[in-house]
Amino acid sequence: MKQTKLWTKDFIILSSTSFIISLVYFLLMTTLAVYAIEQFSASESMAGLAASIFVIGAVFSRLFTGRFIETIGRKKVLFSGLLLFLVATLLYFTVTNMYLLLLVRFIHGAGFGISTTALATIVMDIIPKERRGEGVGYFSLSNTLATSIGPFLGLYISQYADYSTIFIICALLSMINVIISLFSKIPSPAIIQDKDNTLKGFKLSNFFEKKAVPISIMIAIMGFVYSGILSFITAYATEINLIEAASFFFLVYSIVLLISRPFTGKLLDQKGDNFVIFPAILSFAIGLVILSQSHNSFTLLLASVFLALGFGTMQSCFQVIAVKESPQHRIGLATSTFLICMDFGVGMGPFVLGAIIPLLGFRGLYLMSAIIVFLSIFLYFILHGKKAAANQKVYTKAS
User: Fold this and answer.
1) What's the rounded Cα separation, in Å, for the pair 67 and 58?
2) Which is deepest, 132, 207, 230, 399, by most CB within 10 Å?
3) What is the DSSP letter of 196?
4) What pLDDT is recorded for position 194?
5) 61: how many CB neighbours lie within 10 A of its CB?
6) Domain end call among 157, 184, 211
7) CA distance 242 to 144
């Protein structure tokens, strides 16, 4: 049986757009805190706020983007987000104090939230349904590549040039994004007769898709745990004298994802949700246990392999499940619901987990995190796994 084409012109353009957005995000994320300290004599907490307020802007904009995608139109929302993202990169040149920087970061975060929510919704629609897991796996690699290239590029440029050079590069990349996206054909959303009426007012259902909530709760928990790695891996590596190995931690993580995601996406499509998710949760838990007991470079990098096969796999597969469970005309709301929950988990994690470190230490933190992830197997079964197993039985019989 001939497979429906996945690598269309539009899929490539939108994946490239996503890569550039993520590249700018990570490029600035690794340099803005130092910029704030050097240029405006900001305290470490204020410099940290310059990074986190971006996420606040993204979450705020996503609350409304999912709704507007279906009422205003996907094309208008995407271009609005990309233009706001571009304007924000230009505003960095006008910043003269810390408060203006915080405002620009919030606006930039809003542009990021609108653009990425719209992109994820549109891509879900242009990927053939029978290849959705595989397609999202490939699409999400754009973010994976940016995770590796962005921080490297940011640190490299900051060593050999000034911050204006970084802002110029970000502005040029954002401009390229607006231009290349003009060449993509964006499909209109599925229309239902009373759609405009159901999305009017300020009901909770107009901002969140309830059928996407169960799996979104799972990504919030997993994102919460993963934030402990993002935020504290360098401090942990310094404590156990493995700082050199830690510099390769996310590189190994990205390489494993580049290799594994296309395969895990195909397995999700062909074998069902549980076939992929249960091993992924176990892999995440094992990775955290190995991380908590690392005493040499090999075990630290081995942990990154299991973490990539765990959290990295769940991140893309959960997004597919969120959309698959939701009505076609509410894909935008399902996508924003999923991303808001993930951002919330990742955003809250450092604050809560940071308070636990003085009590348990880094090793204790990661061991506790492993227990949380392992126990979440049962929560997943209740929230989605049981239903997925029943659906797979029906699908198998029908086949």
Assistant:
1) 15
2) 132
3) H
4) 43
5) 25
6) 184
7) 24
| Residues sharing a CB contact under 8 Å with residue 46, sequence separation 6 or more, in sequence order | 36, 98
Q: How far apart are the first and last CA of the chain?
A: 14
For the chain, give the number of residues.
399
What percent of the chain is modeled with pLDDT above 70?
Answer: 92
Neighbours of 90 (CB within 10 A): 15
The answer to whether 209 touches 334, Cβ cutoff 8 Å, is yes
Tokens read off for 86: 């571009």
Q: Are residue 206 and residue 178 in the same domain, yes or no? A: no
When pLDDT is averaged across residues 263-280 and rounded to a whole number, the result is 91
CB atoms within 10 A of CB 283: 21
Q: How confident is the model over 148-189, as pLDDT tens digits?
A: 788 778 777 877 888 899 999 999 999 999 999 989 888 776
Q: Residue 358 is encoded by which pair of tokens? A: 């003085």
> In the prediction, which pLDDT does 330 show?
81
pLDDT greater than 50 at residue 193: no
CB 273 within 8 A of CB 384: yes
Among 184, 209, 232, which residue terminates a domain? Answer: 184
Q: What is the pLDDT of residue 269?
A: 85
Query: Is 171 in the same domain as 277?
Result: no
Q: From CA 134, how far away is CA 269, in angstroms rounded?
A: 7
> What does the mean pLDDT of the chain come to?
86
Q: Which two tokens stand for residue 173?
A: 């990349």
**Host domain of residue 332:** 201-399
